[in-house]
């Protein structure tokens, strides 16, 4: 039993029993199915235990992982701020995966190759936890996302959990391919932070940080700093990666008197900095680029995939929630796909924002 065989189904029905039963009715599981992913609307979070019990009963699969999300996506469609459930399940090689969480740490046994992780956004030092998790797999790559919810934040990992990090780690017998697409485009110029304390930037290139930021956003936007902060973000290049790999972080405060800006990330003197514009056109173009490069790199059609998108994308960026899964379907056909809209996206060993992360099983 070496080949990965997958099935997927989703439903955007508002009530959880209806959404779950509709999804199960469309799920054509292969014989020997032994692992499932489930993503469900935060409207259904209170019923996570009942959903997991029903999934096990209906499929015979004991091991499930997943997360709550303000939005979920399936093959060709997605919805934010609505009910819904998305499933991806199938047969994986015997001994080819291990579910982990704080209750069952990823210790002992052979070193895994890759992992899909879900995490609670309220957990402190999440960036460090992601980097630590990447260090536990031989490829150095993990993908996934932070749970999103208006109410209860929960994860699934052989049970219903709250807090911390959980997911499933795979061995090399499970072939995967993964890529990230950015939701911003860099503005001209690269800078260096020359004065900073925690998340407050005092000077950039030796000049007051707010002065440099206002130049980047332009004269018109600079008249309304709240509006400027919505469109122009701080970008922190990831060391050792290509020029297009950066962490997008919000400008969360300004101090006109002292010329300071604050972002939602700890920074230090000497760190490179660029400014980014949130741009739906550039985001769509970058997703086309990512999908094309990924498709061209594969040895054959993928068996299925997981997609994790930022809550600021979907309809907020593209005008429709389903744009991204439709683009994935256009690139790869009607492959089984499941995922959710996150409070932060995980790719390689970093915690991103405004991105989409696609992982394909081959």
Describe this structure in words.
The protein has 362 residues and is α+β, with helices and mostly antiparallel strands. The chain folds into two domains: 5-182 and 283-361, no CATH class; 185-278, no CATH class. It has eight helices and 27 strands. A hairpin with a 2-residue loop joins strand 10 and strand 11. Helix 1 runs parallel beside helix 2 (48-59) and helix 6 packs parallel to helix 8. It is globular. The model has no long low-confidence stretch (mean pLDDT 94).
Structure at a glance:
The strands form four sheets. Strands 14, 15, 16, 17, 18, 19, 20, 21 and 22 form a nine-stranded antiparallel sheet that branches. Strands 1-6-2-3-10-11 form a six-stranded mixed sheet. Strands 5-4-24-23-27-13 form a six-stranded mixed sheet, covered by helices on one side.
What structural keywords apply?
single chain, 9-stranded antiparallel beta sheet, 362 residues, alpha+beta
Tell how many strands the DSSP assignment holds: 27
- The whole-number mean of residue pLDDT values reads 94
The level of helicity is 10-25%
Q: What is the straight-line distance between the termini?
A: 15 Å
Q: State the low-pLDDT regions, or none.
A: none
SS content category: alpha+beta
* Rg, nearest Å: 21 Å
Number of continuous helical runs: 8
Q: Main sheet, how many strands, which sense, barrel?
A: 9 strands, antiparallel
Overall body shape: globular
Count of domain modules: 2
Strand content: 35-45%
């Amino acid at each position: 039993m070496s080949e990965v065989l997958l099935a997927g189904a989703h439903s955007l029905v508002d009530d959880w029993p209806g959404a779950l039963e509709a999804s199960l009715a469309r799920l054509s599981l292969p014989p020997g199915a032994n692992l499932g992913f489930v993503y469900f609307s935060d409207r259904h979070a209170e019923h996570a235990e009942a959903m997991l019990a029903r999934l096990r009963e209906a499929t015979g699969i004991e091991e499930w992982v997943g997360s709550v999300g303000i939005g979920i996506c399936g093959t060709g469609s997605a919805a934010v701020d609505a009910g819904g459930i998305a499933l991806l399940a199938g047969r994986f090689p015997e001994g080819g995966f291990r579910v982990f969480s704080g209750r069952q740490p990823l210790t002992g046994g052979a070193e895994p190759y890759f992992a899909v992780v879900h995490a609670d956004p309220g957990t402190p030092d999440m960036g460090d936890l992601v980097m630590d998790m990447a260090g536990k797999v031989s490829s150095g790559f993990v993908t996934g996302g932070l749970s999103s919810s208006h109410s209860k934040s929960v994860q699934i990992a052989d049970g219903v959990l709250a807090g911390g990090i959980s997911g499933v780690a795979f061995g090399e017998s499970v072939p995967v391919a993964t890529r990230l697409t950015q939701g911003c485009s860099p503005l001209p110029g690269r800078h260096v932070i020359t004065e900073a304390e925690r998340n407050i930037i005092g000077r950039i290139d030796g000049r007051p940080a707010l002065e440099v930021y206002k130049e980047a956003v332009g004269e018109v936007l600079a008249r309304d700093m709240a509006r400027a902060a919505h469109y122009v973000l701080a970008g922190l290049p990831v060391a050792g990666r290509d020029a297009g790999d950066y962490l997008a972080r919000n400008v969360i405060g300004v101090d006109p008197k002292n010329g300071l800006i604050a972002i939602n990330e700890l920074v230090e003197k000497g760190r490179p900095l660029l400014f980014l514009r949130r741009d739906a056109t550039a985001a769509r173009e970058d997703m086309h680029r990512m999908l094309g490069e990924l498709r061209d790199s594969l040895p054959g059609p993928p068996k299925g995939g997981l997609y994790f998108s930022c809550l600021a994308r979907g309809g907020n960026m593209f005008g429709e929630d389903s744009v991204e899964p439709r683009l994935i379907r256009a690139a790869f056909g009607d492959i089984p796909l499941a995922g959710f809209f996150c409070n932060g996206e995980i790719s390689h060993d970093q915690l991103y924002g405004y991105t989409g992360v696609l992982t394909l099983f081959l």
